[in-house]
Amino acid sequence: MTQFSPTIRVWDLPTRIFHWNEALFFMMATLVGIHLAGVVVESVLHRENLVAVMFHGRKRVENSKVVPDSVPARPPISP
Fold first, then answer.
1. More confident: 27 or 65
2. Among 29, 11, 32, 9, which residue's Cα sits nearest to residue 21?
3. CA 40 to chain centre
4. CA 27, CA 33: separation in Å to the nearest integer?
5. Is 49:43 a contact under the CB 8 Å cutoff?
């Protein structure tokens, strides 16, 4: 029966790094896929092209309301 050895053998290190790298790649690819699916679902639910809005930064406003670009969210803080 072999006992557990906490030391890492030098020749196992590239293999372990490869497996961690591979696992992290698949986790990241899964998260990217979930994000893209969320963008598609939200685009369909809101009936607007969110990808185009992300690129050019302009969004259609209902009833053709004009929204000024430079309206502060809150008044400036006075000392």
1. 27
2. 29
3. 14
4. 10
5. yes
Structure tokens at 59: 């969004």
Separation CA 30–CA 38 (nearest Å): 12
List, for residues 28-78, the tens digit of each pLDDT value. Answer: 999 999 999 999 999 899 888 888 888 887 777 666 555 566 666 677 677
Amino acid sitting at position 61 = V
The answer, as to whether pTM is greater than 0.70, is: no
For residue 29, what pLDDT is reported?
Answer: 97
Provide φ and ψ at 56, rounded to 5°.
-100, -15
Ramachandran quadrant class, 57 (left: phi over 0; alpha: psi -120 to 50; beta: rest): left
User: What are the sequence ranges of the domains in the chain?
Assistant: 21-59
* Tokens 């969320």 found at: 38
